[in-house]
Design goal:
The chain is mainly alpha-helical and about 180 residues long. The protein contains 9 helices and 3 strands. A 3-stranded antiparallel beta sheet has the order 1-2-3. The longest helix is centred in the C-terminal third of the chain and has 16 residues. The chain is globular, with a radius of gyration of 16 Å. The relative contact order is 0.16. The model has no long low-confidence stretch (mean pLDDT about 85).
Amino acid sequence: FMRRLRERDATAARCLEFIVLTAARSGEARGMLWGEIDFGAAVWTVPADRMKAGKAHRVPLSARALAILQGQGTQQPGQLVFKGGREGRPLSDMAFKALFERMGIGGMTAHGFRSSFRDWAGEATNFPRELAEAALAHTLESKVEAAYRRGDALEKRRAMMESWAAFCELRESAAVIPMARA
């Protein structure tokens, strides 16, 4: 799927690829502004007002995620990264549905890739559960645990997201080991 998605020359395709690589929610990525990206640190900071939990979220960006952003044109701080059809408007949430239809794929949603990421992290890697949950910006249910966990494990999550990008590109990484067929 990722190979086919990369072949498409469309803003919706680049946005969806970015969503897959960052495990972000669709609305977070569709509303992304250039000023939220720190290219030097390879970090995207999603402001609290676009986060489901109402708390700012730092997202480590893989090399491919950075390349997608750099290919999106003029980088003006107050401007949208992934522009919709009408100037100054973000991509519609229906842009992905139309993209799937044009690709001849039914039954998929952009949000489903978050679930794919979580399954991969939990079943195909040794990354701790807490890292995967932090990458998805899920809040801790235990208020006591949340009170003691103040950091966001950004650098540990960076290693996980690079491994996820490698998995999505079907290239080898330290965390993804190809298995020979019997």
